[in-house]
């Protein structure tokens, strides 16, 4: 009987030492649920964020205008253009992402701020980026449509106004660049069509001759380098 009591007394402290470890595993820190929530939300909204809050909109519009101007329907392919657009978007957004990490992610990981504070702080650099490339006309359009009082500063506008205004501004910029990009190739098409018609080549479509000429012209002037340089300079 005495042996059992001694064994029980020895086992109780050992069990009490194991309880804190077990409770720590069953009840993790308060930041863990927020981390899981943020990760799932970002994964779900990642395609929309990339298309609506990054330069990817302008880049993809210009790339597709270029493909139409060259007359190559499938070259470069959509995955190739999307991959190039994503890499250029990553390059352009690196400073903004660095600010988000410094102002929101690192303090949240250190437990200095809550999850909502991290969202609020992290959205500020992104909002500044969007406002920088949004036209006042587009901002005024959605401000009036949302019946939002006139703000004292652009930073006071909510994201539901800034994001659609940014998309409209980027679409306009992309179409403007695409229209300028189309002109030299359109000139090649017109000259080729005039020459083939004047010499009586009615059975041969002009696009059969103009497409190789446009591709050769684009390669000779190092078109991809010039296009990437112009797009990067536009931001």
Automatic annotation (TrEMBL):
<keyword id="KW-0966">Cell projection</keyword>
<dbReference type="GO" id="GO:0005886">
    <property type="term" value="C:plasma membrane"/>
</dbReference>
<dbReference type="InterPro" id="IPR005837">
    <property type="entry name" value="FliP"/>
</dbReference>
<dbReference type="Pfam" id="PF00813">
    <property type="entry name" value="FliP"/>
</dbReference>
<comment type="similarity">
    <text>Belongs to the FliP/MopC/SpaP family.</text>
</comment>
<keyword id="KW-0282">Flagellum</keyword>
<keyword id="KW-1003">Cell membrane</keyword>
<keyword id="KW-0653">Protein transport</keyword>
<feature type="transmembrane region" description="Helical">
    <location>
        <begin position="32"/>
        <end position="57"/>
    </location>
</feature>
<feature type="transmembrane region" description="Helical">
    <location>
        <begin position="175"/>
        <end position="195"/>
    </location>
</feature>
<dbReference type="GO" id="GO:0009306">
    <property type="term" value="P:protein secretion"/>
</dbReference>
<dbReference type="GO" id="GO:0044781">
    <property type="term" value="P:bacterial-type flagellum organization"/>
</dbReference>
<keyword id="KW-0975">Bacterial flagellum</keyword>
<keyword id="KW-1005">Bacterial flagellum biogenesis</keyword>
<keyword id="KW-0813">Transport</keyword>
<keyword id="KW-0472">Membrane</keyword>
<keyword id="KW-0969">Cilium</keyword>
<dbReference type="GO" id="GO:0009425">
    <property type="term" value="C:bacterial-type flagellum basal body"/>
</dbReference>
<keyword id="KW-0812">Transmembrane</keyword>
<keyword id="KW-1133">Transmembrane helix</keyword>
<keyword id="KW-1006">Bacterial flagellum protein export</keyword>
<dbReference type="InterPro" id="IPR005838">
    <property type="entry name" value="T3SS_IM_P"/>
</dbReference>
<comment type="function">
    <text>Plays a role in the flagellum-specific transport system.</text>
</comment>
<protein>
    <recommendedName>
        <fullName>Flagellar biosynthetic protein FliP</fullName>
    </recommendedName>
</protein>
């Amino acid at each position: 009987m005495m042996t059992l009591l001694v064994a029980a007394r020895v086992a109780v402290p050992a069990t009490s030492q194991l309880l804190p470890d077990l409770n720590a595993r069953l009840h993790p820190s308060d930041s863990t649920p927020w981390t899981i929530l943020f990760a799932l939300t970002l994964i779900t909204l990642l395609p929309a964020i990339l298309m609506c809050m990054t330069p990817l909109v302008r880049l993809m519009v210009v790339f597709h205008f270029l493909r139409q101007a060259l007359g190559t329907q499938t070259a470069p392919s959509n995955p190739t253009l999307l991959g190039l657009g994503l890499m250029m978007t990553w390059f352009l957004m690196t400073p903004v992402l660095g600010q988000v990490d410094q102002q929101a992610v690192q303090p949240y990981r250190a437990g200095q701020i809550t999850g909502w504070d991290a969202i609020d702080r992290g959205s500020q650099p992104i909002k500044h980026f969007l406002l920088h490339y949004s036209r006042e006309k587009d901002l005024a359009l959605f401000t009036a449509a949302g019946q939002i009082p006139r703000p004292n500063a652009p930073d006071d506008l909510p994201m539901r106004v800034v994001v659609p205004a940014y998309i409209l501004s980027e679409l306009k910029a992309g179409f403007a660049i695409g229209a300028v990009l189309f002109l030299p190739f359109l000139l090649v098409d017109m000259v080729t069509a005039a020459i083939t018609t004047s010499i009586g080549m009615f059975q041969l479509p002009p696009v059969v001759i103009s497409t190789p000429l446009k591709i050769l012209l684009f390669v000779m002037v190092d078109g991809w380098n010039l296009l990437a340089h112009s797009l990067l300079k536009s931001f």
